[in-house]
């Protein structure tokens, strides 16, 4: 099976999550029941179990002690880690309660087990602060774990495209930007004024320096902030906001705003043109999604992604992680199906919206008064 990017073909089978391991101490009866039930479902679906993680393991289920979360330090970006936490209370705010476990355990996905009015609930948390629930009906173990598996498997088998290759070949006349980067700066300020830049989760307050470096290397992030902006420079290149930066203060070329010049499908990695006198930051992890849209639709001049929503829009069916070829392909497919791909608004399940336009100014004119800050979760 292959995924057509519009310019290159990536082998989606590289991301098939067949091998898995279960780590951590099973301290409670609920943890034991959940871990054994999920393991049984994985085996039933044809996955291979390893008592201890092998170097190229695809899926690690980490049973976490809420009082002392222990991370699994993966050896490769392709390893998908799911943290499983059994809570002895029902939180008022699952994201605020669970996100520290997700981060401390260096996980891609978190599952919080909690007991509510309807019984046992499995609350899923994603790095993008998505939150959705699968409720257990007593006596329906097989159905419950099948639903849990169906939530995990597409995410665990997705392929990240978050590596960057920096080339100091940016034209000197662009070292301080141009009129397009000025538009990006104003657009970031506009997002801030519209209250569409949620405060980034203080990851640096949770992780020590070693684990913070580990997370940045694996996820390709410079911090946890949300939303991104891009605008076409020419036929093949586009300017885009960097990862982890304050979008309301996009100022320095190569640090806050980068020029995406190409994509290398073999690595895979985004190719960035930067000035020689700046320590560059990574481009937003959504660069592969924007790259695919720009290459396929020459009439698209700008793209905005925010963690918000709009009524009446079509959405991707699976909440793939940011920076994966699967998410990019799903969004690109929906853009392609729009009556006017150059003026599309696409929902990203449990995540936000991607909006295409002829320019950044034109996008903001269209969405004024139509944005809903709360993303629906399902």
pLDDT < 50 runs, ≥5 residues: 1-16, 220-224
So what's the overall shape?
Answer: globular
Determine the fraction of residues in helical runs and give it as a percent range.
Answer: 25-40%
If you average the pLDDT, what whole number results? 89
Tell me the strand percentage band.
15-25%
How do the helices and strands follow one another from N- to C-terminus? Answer: EEEHEEEHEEEHEHHHEEEEHEEHEEH
Q: Structural class, from secondary structure content?
A: alpha/beta
Question: What distinguishing features does this structure have?
Answer:
378 residues, alpha/beta, nine-stranded mixed beta sheet, seven-stranded mixed beta sheet, 9 helices, 28% helix, 24% strand, disordered N terminus
Describe the model.
- It is a single chain.
- The relative contact order is 0.12.
- The protein starts with a strand and ends in an 11-residue tail after the last helix.
- It is of the alpha/beta class and 378 residues long.
- Helix 1 crosses helix 3.
- It is globular and about 65 Å long.
- The chain is built from nine helices and 18 strands.
- It has a nine-stranded mixed β-sheet, sandwiched between helices. Strands 4-3-5-6-7-8-9 form a seven-stranded mixed β-sheet.
- A hairpin with a 2-residue loop joins strand 7 (109-116) and strand 8.
